[in-house]
Amino acid sequence: MINDLWYKNAVFYCLNVGTFLDTNGDGTGDFQGLMRRLDYLHGIGVDAVWLMPFQTSPQRDDGYDVADYYNVDPRYGTLGDFVEFTHAAHSRGMRVIIDLVVNHTSDQHPWFKDARSSPDSPYRDWYVWSKTKPANADQGMVFPGVQDTTWTYDEQAKEYYFHRFYDFQPDLNTANPKVQAEILKIMGFWIQLGVSGFRMDAVPFVIATKGADVTKPVEQFDMLRMFREFLQWRKGDSIILAEANVLPDTDMDYFGSDGDRMQMMFNFQVNQHLFYALAASDGRPLAKALRQTKSRPETAQWAIFLRNHDELDLGRLTDEQREKVFEEFGPEKGMQLYDRGIRRRLAPMLDGDRRRMELAYSLMFTLPGTPVLRYGDEIAMGDDLSLPERNCARTPMQWSNEPQGGFTLGSKPVLPVISGGPYGYETINVAHQRREPESFLNWMERIIRMRKEVPEIGVGDFTVLNMRDPSIFAIRYDWRNNSALFIHNLSGSPKEIVFEAGVEGEEGNVLVDVLDSGHSKADDKGKHRVVIEGYGYRWYRVGGLNYLLKRTDI
Ligand code: GLC
Ligand code: CA
Questions:
Q1: Domain named Glycosyl hydrolase family 13 catalytic: which ranges (predicted)?
Q2: Which residues span the domain enclosing 22?
Q3: What pLDDT is attached to residue 505?
């Protein structure tokens, strides 16, 4: 049964069609281009492609301002291209999930245009209005420093409308049954066109009570169950991956204690503490975050990631911890964003240090959940801090050392291709790394392959081992008769560590290194003694060399 839950052990890869590959020279990536790169994605070992918004949009928030939920933005192609793409993905055994942005629409959406035109509009009630400026209009902004209110006066409507995000993103009145029915219709539409589910944007806000009189929004969790039921009736194996940066004690409200709400959530708690672990060489807060987010229904799963298309939000760390991460990974003001995060890509944050990048990814692939990669990270792409807000980490994919990094034959890419310096396309590109046996790309391909050989990470029980040295982070998974153990040295200096595998009987006495030949045999007291280099990592199967023979299938 667990085997049927494809998302528990899949490798996800997130990309934006517009910055992936342009085939007609207009400077914007398109579905035709994405299709040409499906073999590349398949070759790395990607199981599911997560497409960021590609529906018709004025593109004022990278497509998170949708103006037509039932169409492909013409600059990316047509609905026909989309269906060709999902078909081509399926024929390679890959699935597609897409962003579902239904907390708000673009202010250019026909619903909003109609709603603002008259109080009698059938769409008036699809949005959230107030005749007077609500007292809390200067609270709850998602983009502090860039956005200064959550209620804006609309000249045409002669009322204020609510917007949790930018003012061109009016919030939908998601409590309205008609809006809810429309959300289901949107899901049904894309499911029919071949997607396996949705990355649902801003879930806590979608389900929150909204209105001028709401002082403390309350989540309407039943809505999640409604979405889930609808999906499962239409297509049983489709999922929702929720973007919900919430406190651990509400996790189960999102998953549903009977596993009847969201199948997946991004683990923001672990994400932030993982960066703290890397910055401070201290794994203890990460271990705590893992324990806090441990409980989840059997069918539910965490998504584990490093960087995404937004800033690295550090809002859940203590002030001191946050300062430490800023100091190590984003010391300059221009590297930070919204008073809470870092907007850089991973490689520059880690100074392009290969050892630290491998360490970070080794952690990502061995923490409990399903790994989610971001396009370009597999070749260690950099950022362009001269671009505003989050755009710095959304530059076009670097395919080769041809002009514009091989992204477009045109001269006006949608965002500038990074050129020159250590992260320019001349140095960092797929074509080059494909040929180099020791490249980061080839390392990535191999680590993904190894991750797939340890499905226990996705389905097993985990235990963080007690290590005396806080810079050593060790985690073991047990599933039926199988155990796997992963050790990371978060510090830059070599360490000799002495530990017990913690598995009953003889089994724990032999650790088989699955990445290298450094197997370990315990002494007669059952203790292993391993020397691990600075920023080093070890992936072990617990048990004899013939573990594969006795492995119980999952
Ligand atoms: C989510 C997206 C972000 C977007 C926002 C508004 O947080 O990740 O990119 O700006 O929602 O839709
Ligand atoms: Ca194009």
A1: 14-408
A2: 2-103+174-452
A3: 80
